[in-house]
Hints:
- One of its GO terms (biological process) is phosphoenolpyruvate-dependent sugar phosphotransferase system.
- This is PTS glucitol/sorbitol transporter subunit IIC.
- Keywords: Membrane, Transmembrane, Transmembrane helix.
- It comes from Vagococcus bubulae.
- InterPro entries: PTS_IID_sorb.
- It contains seven helices and no strands.
- By secondary structure, the protein is mostly helical.
- α3 (49-59) runs antiparallel to α4 (63-78) and α4 (63-78) crosses α5.
- It starts with a helix and ends in a 13-residue tail after the last helix.
Amino acid sequence: MEYVTQFAEGFMGLFQTGAQTFISWMSGIVPVVLMLMVLMNTLIAFLGEERVVKVAKVSAKNPFTRYLLLPFISAFMLGNPMSFTMARFLPEYYKPSYYAAQAQFCHTSNGVFPHINPGELFVWLGIASGIEQLGLNTMELAIRYMLVGIVMNFIGGWVTDYTTAFVCKQQGITLSKTVDTLAN
Length: 184
């Protein structure tokens, strides 16, 4: 009977710990994420959706704006998974590369901007918990993670450009490198 009791106490303890974590999130990270989402929607409303679309089209012109600027702006303004929709304003040739850069950015910026990818916030919170237990600053880690991520996201996007070129040549496919403004 003692083992059954210990198992039941441990089982309930698991849920009690989960409840305590949930309550800490409700008074900590959830309001921050909510306020960042309000800011994001306010900025889009203030700037106008047309201007946001124009930024996406202009950023398609070179790899730095395509894989550094556009992923950051769209992730910050739209979050995951909406940030991927900005690819619709890019030429077909660059869509795979944008997707590669954007997918990585939604993960590497989570520590600084938790509203970007709240669905995977538990990963960052787990890492941050370990860092806090070591007595280290979590924001320093978050910023380093984001900066390294930005560089790697750019490289990933650009490498995907070369991969796309290779596959197009291999398959005999020609993808457009210009934006069709009438289709958007």
